[in-house]
Batch of 2 targets.
Target 1
Amino acid sequence: MKNIIKFGEDVEGFNIPVMNEREIRAAAGILFLATFLSLMFILFKGNFIPIKYVITLFLTDFLIRVFINPKFSPTLILGRLIVRNQTPEYVGAAQKKFAWIIGVVLAATMFVFFIIVNAYSMITGIICLICLIFLFFESAFGICLGCMFYPLFFKDKVQYCPGEVCDVRNKQDIQKTSVSQFLVLLAFAGYILLAVWLMQGRFSEMPYDLFGGKSVEQTK
């Protein structure tokens, strides 16, 4: 029973239970894609059915992670299969569990509103946005936003963070951002604003069918 209900894995060389950050990021990407696509159905089709399935699966997956064992989480299993040829990047399990408890709370709230009450509101919209941000940061940048709140509630030192961000160390030259790079960012932002100002009229025109000769408006 101890081997079934457990959080994190014992790996030689680590004094606390750890997890593979690579499969966690892959699982976050899967959930992000599913959530994002279901929201597109709402925005463009007014169809709330996909989001109800996603929320139910999301909640079930996180309940398995937190209360049974992450090894049996369907999305983490898929993530493990996807990154099976990559070298594991070990992270502390404690902060991940805390972050996923936040995920359970958010998913449970959405489940109550969308499935039990069958209603949507600004609350559900904000929670969906928060979930997307959390999942995107995890999958794209390897930044666990939920883990950042762990030190606020627990006094023990956070160990084995992704990218070793917990450890105070000097940045290597390849990690440093120069003044010229910041100027490039500012120039690019100015370029975007200029493009919006100069090209808004052109970009607002509906495209036409290249082979049919009709615009999108004419085909409706």
Target 2
Amino acid sequence: MDTEKPHPAESEIPGSTRAAVITPPGAGAIAVVRVWGPGSLAMVDRLFRPASGIGLARMRPGRPRVGRLGACGVGDQVVVEILDDQGILEIQCHGGRAAPLAVMHTLIQAGAARAEPGLVAATTAQSVIATQALEDLPLAATLKTAAILLDQADGALDREIAAIARLVVADREALVGRLKTLIQRSGIGLRLARGWTVALAGRPNVGKSRLMNAIIGRERALVDHRPGTTRDVVTCELALEGWPIELVDTAGEREAIDSIERQGIERARAARAHADLVLLVLDGSMPLEPSDFHLLSQPHQARIVVANKSDLPPAWSLDQVGVELAISAERGQGLGELARLIAERIVGDPPPAFAAVPFRGSHVQCIVDALDRVESGNPAEALARLARGG
């Protein structure tokens, strides 16, 4: 339970509160405004209307609060967090240009001073890893991936490296376990800025294009009853369960009738080969064909097999070829479960809030080196290199 806790440095000194946008400019999913100095907490508390619960002035540090920021509590939705007992706060808002400018305008109108670049650097005191996280933040396409990068900017990975370094001599078993956990989480960390690719595959007329349109909620791909309508790779970026996805619709797999369709099929095969996940679509209302079995026989590291047109009478048993889900792109049946299944398959076990997550290849290489050197070398050297940013 949150209890009232006094915060120091809350005297109302005109102009003593400073504010600055600390995330780089760009089209990222989220922007961060940092506020500090005498009177900072009192000022933000006056402007912030929490969605529920007690006000900021009674909150302990490290507890993010959702609400609206603006005069009389009216304004854009933001997340506010008190970082420490000195009254340093971070306001997380939508990315781009307009939202952080609106937050800064509100703070300046309330009496805050726009910070000079030197003051921001002195106040934020970022490590190399934290600075790298802020550099990557504008590339995060969703709030969920941006939140993970913000945790690293706030020192999550730095703190874990320091904790692991203390285990180098004390507890070898715990050291190995925590290094392996970081390596496992890097599978997500390395995708925070670029997301995952999911390719739709199947023979012509199984409903791939209609399924793509149903998932994204608009007409992105052409749909026609005649086979071979999709001749090229069609892509769309979206978020599923909060994770950034590039969905790729490809030409149907069959014996090509002309050179253009042949090129489309070759591009479809290349797209499937490079995808993180293949969504193989079968027509549950029609007998299976040789091209279906050909696609089912193709190896891929990750695949989900779905039977489309579940709104029609089935022509074969779904467990015959290992179908995981029956859907209807026409009626929208099963699409929510499909979205959850895709996210589960590509992400696996997501890190908990505030967890340490390596997010650059250099970080992962240092962690792998440290794990290798546990047996025969000096893991502390690799960890020291990681602490310097890899």
